[in-house]
Amino acid sequence: MPAITYVLPDGTEKVVNVPVGLSIMDGSVRNNLPGIVAECGGGCSCATCHVHLDAATRALFDDPVSEETELLEFLDGADEDSRLSCQLIITEACDGIRANVVDSSA
């Protein structure tokens, strides 16, 4: 199982083993990590699972679909490193990546 490091909104880090096929959002929610609210449950319709990824990590995932891009356009604090973690499906290549969690509960 790939180990994903979640950099939480308070700056602390939590390493979680996330099964291949689940999303970065799933790994956070299943482990009760703060920051990712996931109001829509992974339906790419609420943007409460906002994370920042570096360029090398972003390259491991498919490009964002139009729904994700549109949600990110209207999200405060979004930038070129922004993705919705519900759309980031874990593969074996993801072992060791870092996801910087934006506090979606604020």
Automatic annotation (TrEMBL):
This protein's record includes keyword Lipoprotein: no
One Gene Ontology biological process: P450-containing electron transport chain
The record's section on InterPro entries has:
2Fe-2S_ferredoxin-like_sf, 2Fe-2S_ferredoxin-type, Adrenodoxin-like, Beta-grasp_dom_sf
GO molecular function annotations of the record: 2 iron, 2 sulfur cluster binding; electron transfer activity; metal ion binding
Q: Which UniProt keywords apply?
A: 2Fe-2S, Iron, Iron-sulfur, Metal-binding
CDD domains named in the record? fer2
**2Fe-2S ferredoxin-type domain sequence ranges:** 2-105
Q: SUPFAM superfamilies this protein is in? A: 2Fe-2S ferredoxin-like
PROSITE patterns given for it?
Answer: 2FE2S_FER_2
Cofactor(s) needed for function: [2Fe-2S] cluster
Q: Which domain of life is it from?
A: Bacteria
Coiled coil regions, renumbered to chain: none
Q: Which family does it belong to?
A: Belongs to the adrenodoxin/putidaredoxin family.
Give the protein name, as stated in the record.
2Fe-2S iron-sulfur cluster binding domain-containing protein
